[in-house]
């Protein structure tokens, strides 16, 4: 949200679980900068997703 005095209040969702059509999807965000290493960014994304998996229950 941008205030009248030019201040900005923002948020970035780094991890999310959502359901669409009876399926559950996981998403994880990553910030890519000039110094980023693609392999490490991938590892970090997997680490973020692994924090959600203990809370998922498979459908019977």
TrEMBL record:
Keywords of this entry: Lyase
Pfam annotation, one family: Chorismate_bind
Domain of life: Bacteria
Enzyme class: lyase
Assigned EC number: 4.1.3.-
Residues annotated as domain Chorismate-utilising enzyme C-terminal: 1-48
MF terms in GO: lyase activity
Protein name, per record: Isochorismate synthase
Organism lineage string: Bacteria, Bacillati, Actinomycetota, Actinomycetes, Mycobacteriales
